[in-house]
Amino acid sequence: MKLSRRPSSKTSSNSANRGPKKPGGYQGSKPRSKVASRRPDPFRNRSKDFYKQEKERKASITGVTTTLGKKTFTPLAPIKPIFKTPTKKQASTQQDIEAHENVYPMRINRYLALKNYSTRRGADELIEKRKVFINGKLAMLGSKVQETDNVEVRYSGILKPYVYYAYNKPQGTITHSPQHGEQDIRAQMIAINRTIRAQQSKHKMSEEIPRVFPIGRLDKDSSGLIILTNDGRITDKLLNPAFEHEKEYIVTTVNKIRDSFKDNMEQGVEIEGYKTKPCWIKIINENTFRITLTEGKKHQIRRMCEAMHNQVRDLTRTRVMNVQLGKMLENSIRKIEGKELEEFLNSLGINAPTVNEVADFKANK
Question: Catalytic residue positions?
């Protein structure tokens, strides 16, 4: 026979010591502290001096001083106008951009990039190779340059020349970073070089295309002119909308162009909270127009047309600054040279020659 202990109706000595049952907690638990449940007060430990100093600080701004509870007004000192160089994003003109960039002291890689000697990354590589000197001393990564410093780049040989090509990108080709199953411009260049090697005598190009990269991009569904080069100096100067370099496109729409289309597009269109810069429109026929832009937002022309209740059927870039697409066939390439190249580089603020400026070699004794 099992014996079970029945609970006693009498209160034990332990339970008596615990005290009466309190709401909101276990029997016998300590009362919850009200102070601990409060949020910490950031001004709790601050002395009266802090508040006095805070009043004096505000008085220096408003012109009112507090002395033993009495307010006495004191005149503010005249504020001298301070000229602040605009940031690159705020710069609206070429002069503002130059004022922002030409600030000394500056890093050595930035100095070489602004002097159109190389890109910043290329300058870092030259510094790592111990070829850059400031006032006769070897430059280090992060070294600062003053306006009066003498900067030398010492070579033991001649660098490869810069090259520039105009390429007619076909629809379906990715500018760069292709996904699975897609083909980019680099793959097209490999195929063109393969064709040049196979038909060296018949092909118009007398030499193979060196390793180049595209400046900017075109949508997969768009076609037309894109600049290929190995000169990283022109990237920012060509793509930065602050420089306002022209790019021209021919666009075919799905629906007929409305009468108000030209005026509204030229004034600027609101796309996702951003108003586009003024552009130039020429109507060719009821479904085709020519547009000239000085900026290049992502899918800008397509989004502008959608904001005007239309859609783009075909889009082709025909001009970048003075470089024309002309009668180039799809997936064809030509070299930019002569007066065309000279005008192109001068417009970007880069003085030709097309070869890197080679400094006189000085032995590092």
Answer: 219
